[in-house]
Amino acid sequence: MELRKDYALERWVIIASGRSKRPQERREAEGQVRGVCYFCPGNERFTPPEIGRLGGRRWRFRWFANKFPAVEPKGNPEARTDNEFFTFADAYGIHEIVVETPSSAKQLWDLKHSELVELFSIYNSRIGELSKADRIKYVSVFKNHGVKGGASLRHSHTQIIASAVTPPVVNAEAESCSGKCPYCRIIGTEKNSFRRCFENETAAAFTPYASRFNYELWIFPKIHRKTLGEFSENEMRDFTELLHNALKRLKTLNVSYNYFIHYSPDSADLHFHLELAPRISNWAGFELSSGIVINTVSPEDAARFYRGESRF
Ligand SMILES: [Zn+2]
Ligand SMILES: [Zn+2]
Questions:
Q1: For residue 74, which of 2, 140, 182 has the smallest C-alpha distance?
Q2: pTM, entire model
């Protein structure tokens, strides 16, 4: 697995040919070949060795290494350049899976609020643990739901990729927070705007002004927190309550989605947040050619949907 940089641009890709084996795995896992779901209780032996679980024999959450990783803890993570134009590094890192429920029949939007609190506590402890690993600079935590969201297994799960490079997007967001944090003020404005969705004592959710995705939604703690580790128990409950609300609304649309969290790198002061990106429309030629996204649902209408003032 190799990390490669574009000839001229700050644009990186991972070439991971091994992951193309997955479609066969997917058909098997969906029960179309052998009727085995590898993430179900009773099939623990089919997954790589377990790293941890919540609950005992009847576990509620379970996590282990990804069988088809996009990164691996071997090789040289330092980028080097051959023949002027070919910049590369080994795709160094650790790729894990967190199974979010023992039930194949449930999706994340079916879980109780208290279960989301547990899930985010697992995120927090995995980020803490993986950050301590040799050469790891950042831990990306993200969720794929549905075919358009890139989920290759139906059984509900989160993926975690710890890597030797900080993602360029996180660096760009962190740069915007150097000096005075803009998000602290943005939250204050948006929680009272037409884009407001949900709010409780310590967290706020809104559809971002320049939403790229239909029904895109962001959740922030109102106090400037850099990482989940800085959250009090109360803040953790509040933050996940808003995600719970958003997912319940999204379930009524029954669409694919992704979400991911962005915490601050050690050296920066990024305001922690979660971005929820429903995957309804496809990015097409204009998006690819221009980098400008055409979004056919205004964030103001999307917010009305989340607030329950309209169905679509
Ligand atoms: Zn299953
Ligand atoms: Zn802030």
A1: 2
A2: 0.94
